[in-house]
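Fold it.
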Amino acid sequence: METFTELINSGKPVLVDFFATWCGPCKAMHPVLENLKAEIGDTARIVKIDVDQKQSLATEYGIQAVPTFIIFKGGKIVWRHSGMISKNELKQQLLTSENI
């Protein structure tokens, strides 16, 4: 199993969804992320991180609201957004990140 650091250091963009199981907007974003994954295939990775289970990661990346989405490329943050967001906007950000 790869570590979080290994995961975000990938050459592909990695969209990390920092969420909480009790969060209504996070639950609403789940099908959006599933649809996005089906559309993008292996172009990028999508990973969900439960902030209650991984508090150290949430603290390290300054997560103060859920859902918070961060796109990493080569270990660096290339985009960040807190709150709900459309599938098309997420897809556009991932495609843009792929070319960085």
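The domain at 4-98 is CATH 3.40.30.10 (Glutaredoxin).
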